[in-house]
Design a protein that fits this description.
With 171 residues, this protein is an all-alpha fold. It has helices at 31-48, 61-67, 80-89, 100-103, 107-110, 129-167, and strands at 8-9, 29-30. 48% of the residues lie in helices and 2% in strands. It is extended.
Length: 171
């Protein structure tokens, strides 16, 4: 979660099933609200063992997230307070979505206030530009290594196939 109000993002990365509706818009959006959406998806998965938006073969996850509401299984005994929290996290309009201040006093998380969350225990994490560049460089390096391995494997398979065809063998 961002430390200050400078959370305006222009694009998003990550697993599509966790992307907030506003992340699909093509316009700048608030990172904090998008993070809370992703937390709601995660919480739903923890509570119900599946994702909140049913996707059938051939359906686009973007369309489902933008147009459908999450379905809550009625056959599972889940505390109604967690359902309320998940619903608040998964509000399609980021302006209506619950914020961190309200999450930290949520009745499910605090056991109806009997176990308040001490916000002072959370410390901001700083990441330097150099650390970001290094992480991207490492990921790119790993991607290139995997791609090279795949190319070598494909070339080897093609070579073996060509030898088999030339010798008239069948597999």
């Amino acid at each position: 979660i961002f430390e200050n109000e400078n959370d305006l993002l222009k694009d998003s990365a990550g697993t599509q099933a966790f992307l907030a509706p506003e992340a699909w818009s093509g316009f700048a959006f608030r990172g904090k609200a998008a993070d809370i959406w992703a937390a709601g998806i995660t919480l739903y998965y923890f509570a119900f063992g599946k994702f909140p938006f049913k996707q059938k073969i051939g359906q686009d996850i973007k369309t489902i997230i933008l147009t459908k509401e999450p379905e809550f299984p009625e056959d599972q005994a889940v505390d109604p307070r967690i359902i309320e929290l998940i619903q608040a996290c998964l509000m399609k309009d980021p302006a209506q979505r619950i914020n961190m201040d309200r999450i930290l006093v949520n009745s499910w998380l605090t056991d109806d206030g009997t176990n308040p969350i001490d916000n002072s225990q959370f410390k901001p994490v700083s990441v330097t530009d150099d650390e970001i560049r290094q992480a991207i460089t490492n990921k790119l390096r790993m991607t290139i290594m995997v791609a090279n391995k795949l190319v070598r494997s494909l070339n080897s398979a093609r070579s073996n196939l060509s030898r088999t065809e030339l010798s008239g063998e069948r597999t």
